[in-house]
Amino acid sequence: MENIFNSMLSSLKEKGLYRGDFKYLNSEQASKVKINNKEVILLGSNNYLGLCNDIRLKEAVIDTVNKYGFGSGGSRLTTGSYDLHRKLEEKIAHFKGVEASLVFSTGYMANVGIISSLCDRKWVIFSDRSNHASIIDGCLLSGAKLVRYKHCDMDDLERKIRENKGKYNLIVTDGVFSMDGDVAPLPNIIKLAKKYEIVTMVDDAHGVGILGENGSGTAKYFKLSDQIDIQMGTLSKAIGSIGGYVAGKKYFIDYFRNIARSFIFSTALPPAAIAASIKAIEIIEKDKFRRKHLLKMADWFKNKLIEAGFQVTRTITPIIPVIVGDSKNTVKLSESLLEEGIYVPAIRPPTVPSGTSRLRISLMATHTYDDLRYVIDVIKFHGKRLGIIEG
Ligand code: PMP
């Protein structure tokens, strides 16, 4: 038995796909972190707005722990629902401009719970090829027919709808794609959904806090908040806390509350985590400057990488993929940067398609232009040394 697993691990190593030990941080998740007590610039975090370690969130958490303790002690349908859960769910609904919302323990559990309770064998699900793994897992768990369309390709989507449409249908897409940083063409998706009478769902894990005039995400950015049937998101990225949610019409939310197994059969989030999310949404609603500054800095940084000759997807978000291609070379670049005090993880298959291994750089509002100028100099040097850009 041991041999089988060892040979599978060796095969991963040969392909440059083996994940070694974790990088353990011994500091808070800020624009600079400590790994083994060495300070490094962090360039791969989803803490886009720097709220994970914001003093206002810390204070909210401490006050809440003092009042409520830590663990929630039960699932939401038994003893684990607190007044704070209700407050957060009302807040999310208002923030997203919809009737109601429901909070899950993680975004992963939200996707799996929503899709598997909405769809069954009678459904056909049209899913963007680059959708997050939790969407795919939800689709597989549902037993529905899964039809994957080419990334953001509306002609392919329409062709596949015509060929596969069933009695009940769902189109599901990331709002902002986690590994590419690009934005789904929601207006066109909605047009097709209306034309063919299809339910729509958007996973806005990476859009929330970043896009839209109040920071509420991709739907707001396209002024489509009332057109998307199901909006899902996470509280663990720009919001700086932990958890996932679904937002939409009351009847959908009531349905998920009753049927979604990942909601029903798991312990509720601790009140302190809920208090952090409430505080973060309040900050996001009021503080436009943070996200504007972040997007401006990201644009500047992307242009510098492109000028240097790197293959970088042009996006309007703080997710900046630097495509290297080969997995081993990507790891070498990531390791070289770490030696120089820059931590940006290498992303390899199966997270991204084979041949597209990359550094997934993501900026935080709390980075400085000085940090980023240093990063550009170092990445250029090692990019040339490893033959990723011309010398
Ligand atoms: N959807 C997307 C697009 C994601 O990137 C992620 C997290 N990587 C999730 C869902 C899952 O969210 P969580 O981390 O809160 O489980």
TrEMBL record:
The answer to whether the entry has keyword Plastid is no
What GO MF annotations does this protein's record show?
A: 8-amino-7-oxononanoate synthase activity; pyridoxal phosphate binding
Record has Magnesium as a keyword: no
Q: Which cofactor does it need?
A: pyridoxal 5'-phosphate
Lineage: superkingdom: Bacteria
Q: Which SUPFAM superfamilies match?
A: PLP-dependent transferases (SSF53383)
The record describes its quaternary structure and partners as:
Homodimer.
What protein name applies here? 8-amino-7-ketopelargonate synthase
Organism listed in the record: Caminicella sporogenes DSM 14501
Record lineage: Bacteria, Bacillati, Bacillota, Clostridia, Peptostreptococcales
